[in-house]
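Page 37, continued from 36.
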């Protein structure tokens, strides 16, 4: 039996969950990317729900380029005997980056166990390995969410250069081209490289798995909440604490533009 889950059909209509009056400001200002992110997350991702019987907790979107965008924490994930909170909008970001750039995408839309970024024996990683082989993937970008209080906008983790020898410099170049700098005085414009989230030095991450077990370049990208959470959903872990939280639209757009350029030149 195939491990590949049912494909999400990007051509099928996405239901309109809110009336225009209740829509996020992103649509009113004409920010199409922010609107697409919010629409996808609202319609397709259920952080706290189990997948329907017979279906996987993740989805695969095929692409035309040898790059795959991964988002294993799009919903709750099981670690250390309990559910760990979702990385909001990482599934939507993976889908958007793939549709805009031609990359493949694999992303979680329902709660999943075990945590694919912590355990190697998981359907997510088995599916990922198969996709890398079937499509001759050369680079995996593994998206994760950092909390709003982190002292960076973006962090690149490659186990200090080990997991992404062919593309690390290119990724850094495109992030810097969009104004994210390692010594920037504003924290949300700051780019960290292998400082806090190093991509797998101490655990069995997706990035480490892709490099060590599959021989493919991989990089973990941590994205501050200010650069990804278009509008917090009621089923989000942090909704009760910060229901009105919204992203910085300009910085979010710059991050998306940089990652699209990485895919297109990868």
């Amino acid at each position: 039996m195939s491990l590949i889950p049912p494909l999400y059909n990007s051509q099928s209509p996405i239901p309109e969950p809110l009336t225009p009056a209740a829509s996020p400001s992103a649509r009113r200002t004409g920010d199409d990317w922010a609107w697409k992110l919010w629409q996808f997350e609202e319609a397709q991702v259920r952080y706290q729900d189990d997948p329907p019987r017979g279906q996987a907790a993740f989805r695969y979107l095929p692409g035309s380029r040898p790059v795959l965008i991964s988002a294993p924490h799009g919903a709750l994930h099981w670690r250390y005997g309990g559910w760990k909170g979702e990385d909001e909008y990482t599934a939507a970001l993976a889908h958007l980056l793939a549709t805009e750039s031609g990359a493949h995408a694999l992303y979680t839309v329902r709660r999943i166990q075990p945590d694919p970024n912590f355990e190697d024996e998981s359907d997510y990683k088995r599916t990922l390995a198969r996709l890398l082989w079937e499509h001759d993937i050369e680079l995996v970008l593994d998206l994760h969410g950092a909390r709003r209080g982190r002292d960076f906008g973006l962090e690149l983790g490659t186990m200090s250069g080990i997991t992404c020898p062919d593309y690390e410099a290119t990724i850094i170049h495109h992030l810097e081209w969009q104004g994210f700098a390692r010594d920037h005085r504003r924290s949300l414009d700051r780019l960290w490289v292998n400082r806090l989230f190093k991509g797998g030095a101490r655990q069995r991450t997706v990035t480490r798995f892709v490099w060590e077990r599959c021989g493919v370049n991989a990089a973990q990208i941590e994205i501050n909440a200010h650069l990804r959470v278009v509008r917090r959903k009621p089923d989000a872990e942090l909704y009760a604490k910060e229901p009105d939280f919204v992203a910085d639209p300009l910085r979010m757009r710059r991050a998306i533009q940089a990652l699209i350029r990485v895919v297109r030149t990868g």
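The helical segments are 25-28, 32-44, 90-101, 123-134, 168-177, 206-214, 249-265. Flag for discussion at group meeting. The mean pLDDT is 87.
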